Amino acid sequence: MQIQLAECYRFAINFNVLEIEVPSIQRQSGSIDCGLFAIAFAYELASGNEHTIQSKQFKQHRMRDHLIRCLENGEFKPFPAQINNKRKREDPNIFEIELFCNCLMPEVSDDMILCDLCDHWFHFGCVNVKGIEGNEQWLCPKCTPPAS
Fold first, then answer.
1. A single Pfam family, by name (predicted)?
2. How many Cβ atoms are within 10 Å of 97's Cβ, its own excluded?
3. Domain extents for the chain?
4. Which residues contact 89 (CB under 8 A, 6 or more apart)?
5. What is the pTM of this model?
6. In this predicted model, what pLDDT tens digit does every residue of 6-43 receive, in sequence order?
7. What's the N-to-C CA distance of the chain in angstroms?
8. Cα–Cα nearest to 92, from 26, 33, 25
9. Are the C-beta atoms of residues 85 and 109 closer than 8 Å to each other?
10. Angle formed by the axes of helices 60-73 and 34-46, nearest 10°
11. Which residues pair with 57 in a beta bridge?
C-alpha cells in the first residue's frame, strides 16, 4: 500500500516524506457493510466534505437501499446521515512513509545502494546497478562528475 500512496501523492511530498493523516471516523456495526461505508466516505471526500467527515453519523440501516437507488438512477446523492457534534473527536492517526531515490518511492523489495557523496539511497533498478563489490565506492548520477 505504501507504493500506491506514494504514487498517488507524488506531488504532495515534503522533504522525501509522505505524511498520511487518517481521521477518526464512524465504523460500521457488524461485518458486512464496510463496502457501503467506503463508498459513503469516498462520496463525502469527493464532494469536498472532508471537514465534517469526523462528525458525520451515517444511518447504517438506510445506506444499502440508498446506494441501490443511486445506482438505479445513475446519480449519487449524499448518504443518509446526521451531524453528531457530541461524538468524541479523537486525534487523527498520522504516519509517515519515507521516500527514496529519484523515483520518490518507498523502500521496496528491490535492493538499494547509498551514494558515498550525498548520502541518498537509490533503488538498484532505478540507477542500473546490479551489485557492488566490498568497499567499492558508488556515486549517484547527480554526484558523478561529467565524463571528459
1. PHD
2. 19
3. 24-91
4. 24, 54, 55
5. 0.58
6. 666 666 666 778 788 888 888 899 999 999 999 999 99
7. 43
8. 25
9. no
10. 60
11. 82
